UniProtKB/TrEMBL annotation:
Residues 1-57, 71-93 are annotated as: Disordered. Signal peptide: none annotated. This is Translation initiation factor beta propellor-like domain-containing protein. It comes from Hevea brasiliensis (Para rubber tree). WD repeats lie at residues 131-165, 217-259. Keywords: Repeat, WD repeat. Transmembrane segments: none annotated. InterPro entries: WD40/YVTN_repeat-like_dom_sf, WD40_repeat_CS, WD40_repeat_dom_sf, WD40_rpt, WD_repeat_protein.
Amino acid sequence: MDLLCNAYSNSSDEEPEPGPQPNTVLRPQFRTEYRTFAPPPSKRPKPDNPQSEAPIPGRYISKRERALLAQAQAAPAPDRLDQNPNLPLPTSPVLGSITDSDLPCDILLSLKQATGRAQQSQISERLFTSLHSHTKPVNALSWSQSHAHLLATAGMDHTICIWNVWSRDQKIARTFRFHNAAVKDVKWSQRGLSVLSCGYDCSSRLIDVEKGIETQIFKEDQVIGVIKFHPDNSNLFLSGGSKGCIRLWDIRTGKVVHEYVRDLGPILDVEFTINGKHFISSSDVSGGNVSENSIIVWDVSRQVPLSNQVYVEAYTCPCIRCHPFDPCFVAQSNGNYIAIFSSSPPFKLNKYKRYESHGVSGFPIKCNFSLDGEKLVSGSSDGSIYLYSYRSSDIIKKIKAYEQACIDVAFHPIMPNVIASCGWNGEVSVFE
């Protein structure tokens, strides 16, 4: 009887609130026994679960409801990160938008054009924006083909940044820290909002940018320095690492399709030819005297080298790029020039043509062709961007971008007068 009195001693809302209840288990049983008599409903019905229902504005809240609400607010949430250490920490803070809804009308119109033929003769002249987020050098950048307002950058600070370059509000849209070491390279997938990255943690990672999740991890036994998607099959990509091993991966199965093994130094770059049947690799041969292995042309399906005596000079080449139309490719040389080669047998070096005046000085300086293939742009160890005429190899323009080395530079995939670059000081710049 005492238990029943204690359990229902505060049945009225007007009575003063007692201290903690010693036992409240019998209260619902008591009410269940009298539910068969069907008492008339209360003039002011009380919610069955006041902890989960928000109070209606202006309604009187009893002392019992106020106490229960206070207990619910004070109780620790079981799914909070600070209360559940087993939950993963957020790796994709959303700082801006990846949509093009807030872009200026003129930029949106230019991005929707299939090609930028009307602007092919224009050259980047002024700094449009400077993007700051990386705290250490930026190793690579990549424009999205399907969402051309987005730019991805890979930094030595273990982060991958996604930039909405022309956004009116917040230009940085996503920051990913899935790698636990420096990120060496990043490439957009030809399909959807996904990026592929690699780094010093001996892994390549496929990231869904829209959802902010890591969808696949490709683990290896070497530091991965470069990745490249197949031009005709976005499910395949090449990876080159510090042990000289090149692997062709299939995203659908997460397994290695082919492995290209030769007694090479660390792989500096890989590049598919136009038809996708061959690819070119560049390796570091500074540790040996066999300089003919610095650039090798491979057969993709047969896994055999077609030529290993393409470039016999005693310089390493940190970047290889194929011309978008002509059967040739260029190699950025540590001899402070860009050499040009034929991409069809017998893969000869053009001894009468080279792109000079910029510096490499041991930095991983990269170069890229324009959309129409008429210009070649290169970074430089002096912090400048050099634009060359592809046909004559003359310098068209020189743009001072950074005080430290300019590492990577790339033309926009639609607007040929827009160039993005990144520097050794961690800064990312867009010129137009």
